[in-house]
Amino acid sequence: MTPSARKRTTPLAAIVLAAGKGTRMKSSRAKVLHPICGRPLAYYPVKRALDLGASPVVVVVGHQAAQVEAALRAVLPDAPLRFALQEQQLGTAHAVLSAKKALRGFEGSVLICSGDTPLLTEETLASVVDARDKAKAGLAFATMTLENPTGYGRVVHSEDGKLALIVEEKDATPEERKIQEVNAGLYCADAAFLWKTLSKVGKENAQGEFYLTDVVALAAKGPGAVSARVSPVEAAGVNDQEELSLAGRALTRRIAQRLMRGGVTLEDPERFLCDEGVEVGPDTVIETGVRLRGATRVGRGCALGQGSILTDTVLADGVTVRPYCVMEQAEVRPAAIVGPFARLRPGADVGEGAHVGNFVELKKTRLGKGSKANHLTYLGDATIGDGVNVGCGTVTCNYDGEQKHPTVIGDGVFVGSDSILVAPIEIGEGAYVAAGSTLTESVPAGALALGRARQVNKEGWVERLQAARKARTRKRA
């Protein structure tokens, strides 16, 4: 919570405008649903408003309304969210007015921002709220200065220097278009003033829309309007795929800075991808090209090798992930080593000090403390005890075409290379499985299991085969 939120004496609500289609995205998906750092675009202004203490936050939806609501509720399940439908997109003032019913009875400040501004920070939102509180004005809004203000509403001052109005570009005179101070699309208004004033907004303008910016002129003539300068980088909206990519890179850089300030070593922050909300402990070293997704948690003193991708995965302290591993919904316990080129699928649980080597795949499998599966192995639906050695090429045959079956391997078992374990099967504690065995029955503790066919050597077989081939060739000729 920011100092602003702690000191505030009046309630704060927020409205996030997320009804548009976003035609410049050239996509069938609504703009605010496009993912950025693991979250939908609209998540970011909503989350920053929540962090500031806004309650409730009303999201105005329109295009793909049901999908937008479902996506935001999924990533913010416990947040005080409300949704308001703008059936027709008739302008920004009309969009805000659509939220009136959802805020019925609310008295206090209402923060208004756009759903396509992922780089807004809590501090920037607070600066606009604080500006209104300090001035006791009806409205505060954010402005920024641009060398090229094309496309933005210009902030016009009266002769005495006071705020007068915002003029949208299509309605601006040539002289007004030279103004470099522009509207950043972020507002804070007194609720009573807002609803009363929105009813006075008309659509006598070049686009025939109800402009929210018209409220500025009405506030300037009444309870007062004040402005707060903000960073153009933060206030920039995402309108196309290129801007989405640039915003994602900027967000990732912020995440990287936070991690480095917390003691994480990033070999190359510019070639590191990380979702919002991922946690990494100090003294962890992350090599180039690593991607951390979803609810991933990485402990202290870990090493993450180049090109590895972790999704919703938990690494305990001291874990080594060698290059090019892929993990999803897995858990790796302290001091374990994974990779290179290993795959941990959902339900994989690698025990303390265990080793999972190159081209080994685990699915819904627990590998016990100190156990090793170092080469070219598939272990699925298996429970493997402590101190087990799983030889190269071992496969648990867990699927019979209709259902999955478990494999249970006790502590201290040695499984020889190229063994096929046909589930359901249990191998008792301390047993040995001879290399090259195919086992279909359980093995008692301490036993040696051999599942090989008897070897037969046919001497002279190759010579006879070659003679037969030559005879066939002569016959065809």
Automatic annotation (TrEMBL):
Q: Where is the active site?
A: H375 (proton acceptor)
Which annotated residues bind acetyl-CoA?
N398, Y399, S417, A435, R452
Q: In its keyword annotation, does this UniProt entry include ATP-binding?
A: no
Q: Name one Pfam family in it.
A: Hexapep
Q: Which EC class is the enzyme in?
A: transferase
Stored Gene3D superfamilies: Hexapeptide repeat proteins, Spore Coat Polysaccharide Biosynthesis Protein SpsA, Chain A
Q: In which pathway does it act?
A: Nucleotide-sugar biosynthesis; UDP-N-acetyl-alpha-D-glucosamine biosynthesis; UDP-N-acetyl-alpha-D-glucosamine from N-acetyl-alpha-D-glucosamine 1-phosphate: step 1/1; Nucleotide-sugar biosynthesis; UDP-N-acetyl-alpha-D-glucosamine biosynthesis; N-acetyl-alpha-D-glucosamine 1-phosphate from alpha-D-glucosamine 6-phosphate (route II): step 2/2; Bacterial outer membrane biogenesis; LPS lipid A biosynthesis
Q: What is this protein called?
A: Bifunctional protein GlmU
Gene name as annotated: glmU
